[in-house]
Amino acid sequence: VPSNYKVLFLQGGATLQASMIPMNLLRGKTSMDFIETGHWGTRAINEAQAIANVNIAATSKDKGFTYVPAFDTWKLDKNAAFVHITPNETIHGVEFYDFPNVGDIPLVGDFSSTIMSRPFDVSKFGVIYAGAQKNIGPSGIAVVIVRDDLIGNVIPHTPDLLNFKKHVEAESMLNTPATYNWYLAGLVFKWTKAQGGVAKLEEVNKRKAAKLYDALDATGFYINSIEKSVRSRMNVPFFLKDESLNDKFLKEANERRLLNLKGHKVSGGMRASIYNAMPEAGVDALIDFLKDFEKRNG
Amino acid sequence: VPSNYKVLFLQGGATLQASMIPMNLLRGKTSMDFIETGHWGTRAINEAQAIANVNIAATSKDKGFTYVPAFDTWKLDKNAAFVHITPNETIHGVEFYDFPNVGDIPLVGDFSSTIMSRPFDVSKFGVIYAGAQKNIGPSGIAVVIVRDDLIGNVIPHTPDLLNFKKHVEAESMLNTPATYNWYLAGLVFKWTKAQGGVAKLEEVNKRKAAKLYDALDATGFYINSIEKSVRSRMNVPFFLKDESLNDKFLKEANERRLLNLKGHKVSGGMRASIYNAMPEAGVDALIDFLKDFEKRNG
Fold first, then answer.
1. Which is higher by pLDDT, A14 or B207?
2. How sure is the predictor about A185, in pLDDT bands with cuts at 50, 70 and 90?
3. CA–CA separation, A230 vs A94, rounded Å?
4. B159-210 pLDDT, tens per residue?
5. CB contact under 8 A, A14 and B139
6. Looking at residue A13, what is its pLDDT?
7. B50 chain-A contacts, CB cut-off 8 A
8. Nearest to A139 among B47, B133, B176 (CB)
């Protein structure tokens, strides 16, 4: 993290940040640009609309959130307070692997499920926020990385606990922090270092995702419709071509201790969550099962 | 909890509630009554003042927060949106053991450090809130008990995550909840039942507090200036008459594994936190040390 940024550990998860961002970043402006590439982007838009005007500068809703609109098609407002993106949409399984240059307007990213899965350039962003419960620790806290010039301009009636400046001054201890969650996050940071750090985990994550997508793409028995260049390395949603086999698939997977493969209620189908905590052997076991299940039912 | 109340488990602790209460309970009114009996009441007042007008209907600041102003001296505003009290002020060690009748105006109580220490009548209150980190579980979540008629009237621009109605509709799962904190709170609830429930713990808490205050009052070597009828059973602040002995006292206490006796930075002196989790034997050990230290230094 560059020296002109502050790192905060706050209670409340990422969804609360979707309200805190407008409260802290409007700075007298009246509109915010959002790029909508899936469910969580839509949630963030809904939260922000309670505070001020939202301009949806680009959306991939037309094709079921299966791609990222090309940067040069984004209809950015040069008076916007900020541009908000969701680099990894966990439900639809869409991930940004590089980031646009949006000029002087602060770029804001909800990195909940992509943070610590790979290195990235913080200096491209005004604010990065992330719920802890993917690659950091237990749910209940959020990490916020905010550039110094964006601290200290809240809208009227902002509670202290939603004010970045108050949290910076109190070093994230404005109220009793979620101490046990912090402690567990600290253990995960140590574990991450012991694995060789984020760059090393990225190598593993690339391998895990590549072999799983290869298996899903092999025959058409399984389906993942996300554009290949923006497929998530952390959450791999997929469908059985014959959805009448869903229950059987989940039952047999459970019997092999391949757990929680049922897709998010928003999307249906299946979902393999392969965050940092999932070892490569777990992905290998899933691939074996995918092939075996297909052989017996294909 | 009566059937016309909802119980919520929310992220953010009690201090966030000090903002959520005005946002949810103003209901078109313009002023709120607060009773100030210590540090946390003052904090709640500061948070509420960011939202609307605060009338301090009674305060014990004149005597260093050592008493609770008699109910009949409270200058209540009959048009107030609610009356806010802090039944247990943990830093000053002042506790309410009964509650006033404030007519049709909802009574709101920050029960952070008194909840589950003894039974009390929820029906006297419009809203009860409590940070978990005393008698419920780890810090990072708050319990909110809100009467049905006070749900659904937020002020404009209230974020969803600060809106009681949204949390009620989502059964406290509006966003990913603090799952591990919930799990640990569940274990504490089971433990509480195994102890015989809150009524049984009250008996123990009364005994623990009575014998500790007796020891502190015995000779004048130790000082607790709180009016006897409102002394906290959970947090017992005290001072050595000769404060030059403070460091020696803390060093020797630590050597006996009597930990965290140093007072809150706001008040100085000493503080014995004797929440439900502190067994009676722990209080007995502290009393033995108090007597022994006095004998050698008195």
1. B207
2. very high
3. 6
4. 898 999 999 999 999 989 999 999 999 999 999 999 999 999 999 999 999 9
5. no
6. 80
7. 157-160
8. B176
Catalytic center residues of A: 40, 110, 134
| A266 compared with B274, residue with greater pLDDT | B274
Report the residue of A141, A158, A181 to disrupt the B interface, i.e. the one with the largest count of B CBs within 10 Å.
A181
Distances B199 to A270, B95, B115, B135, B276 between C-alpha atoms, Å: 48, 18, 12, 14, 12
Q: Spell out the SS3 assignment of chain A.
A: CCCCEEEEEEECHHHHHHHHHHHHHCCCCCEEEEEECCHHHHHHHHHHHCCCEEEEEEECHHHCCCCCCCHHHCCCCCCCCCEEECCEECCCCEECCCCCCCCCCCEEEECCCCCCCCCCCHHHCCEEEEECCCCCCCCCEEEEEEEHHHCCCCCCCCCHHHCHHHHHHCCCCCCCCCHHHHHHHHHHHHHHHHCCHHHHHHHHHHHHHHHHHHHHHCCCCEECCCCHHHECCCEEEEEECCHHHHHHHHHHHHHCCCCCCECCCCCCCEEEECCCCCCHHHHHHHHHHHHHHHHHHC
The full DSSP string for B194-228 is HTTHHHHHHHHHHHHHHHHHHHHHSSSSEE--S-G
Is the pLDDT score of A157 beyond 90? Answer: no
Over the stretch B35-67, which tens digit does the pLDDT of each residue have?
Answer: 999 999 999 999 999 899 999 999 999 999 999
What is the rounded CA–CA span in Å between residue B19 and residue B163? 11
Distance CA A217, CA A187 (A): 37
Residue A207 CB neighbours (<10 A): 13
ipTM here:
0.89
B176: closest chain A residue by CA: A139
> Residue B207: what residue type?
R
Contact A60, A93 (CB under 8 A): no
pTM to 2 decimal places: 0.92
* Cα–Cα dist A174/A10, whole Å: 9
Identify whether B242 is a catalytic site residue. Answer: no
Please list every residue in chain B whose beta carbon sits closer than 8 Å to the beta carbon of residue A159: 16, 19, 47, 50-51, 162
CA-nearest residue of chain A to B46?
A160
Gap from A44 CA to chain B (nearest CA, Å):
11
A159 vs B19, B141, B175: nearest CB: B19
Residue type, A187: L
